[in-house]
Amino acid sequence: MTGYRRISVPADGGDLTVGLWGDGAPVLLAVHGITASHLAWAAVAGRLGGAGTLAAVDLRGRGGSAELPGPYGMARHAADCVAVLDALGVPSTVVSGHSMGGFVALVLADLYPERVSRLVLVDGGPPLPPPPGDTPEEQLRTALGAAAQRLTMRFADRAAYHDFWKRHPAFRTWSATIESYVDYDLTGVAPELRSRVSPEAMRQDYADLSFGEAPAGAWRRLRHPAVFLRAERGMFDEPVALYAAPEPIARRIPLRTVPGTNHYTIVLDDPGATEVAAALADPGAN
Question: What SUPFAM superfamilies is this protein classified in (predicted)?
Fold first, then answer.
């Protein structure tokens, strides 16, 4: 899918940044994870075959939307997604969410059911068991590891940031798409470069997706057609998947485990990106 560009969409407190690939209808909406950006969807966009448009939003507190104020949380992000659909003139569409984006997608469908025709949940959305830790902060550090740690770190140059990501166990390969995704997250002035992600946005969002009523209730009340694409391996490429017990999900909606993927590569690289693109574009599921 060609024709990548970025637009600004007015939202409460400022402007959201939205990445667009392709042109024309249908316009599909994609929502990224807790410390990611719209460029997490670049590989998926490249495998959609040029039919229609993929619109991927930078959630407030991330990427080009980093300066938008809180409060954060799944319902706030869902309202921002509605602002994006309004700006693009899209009454209803297929919505895909990866990781935390899956929780946002569920809440969007629950609070604004007429705006969603179908959901593609990618290794996120259904409830997860809490990770080890006595407090939400400890659980967050356990769950996100280096992804959370990097928000407090400073980097001398882009090469140092690349090296940080290349040491992440989930990134077994490096590509131009992944490098662009990593570079987009970087802001500031050398030698004090840092991630754009707001630590406060990450904290509030993690607490909401883990303990909030909005995402839990949205899963209980799910009434839209939906599919769940499950990464075979975990957040840090562990052999145990993030969703280690898929059976309760499979009893609710169709579930497919994507071989050869972990929590990151299921959208950032093949074979995951091709599987997600196919699920988004599936005309028989609309």
Answer: alpha/beta-Hydrolases (SSF53474)
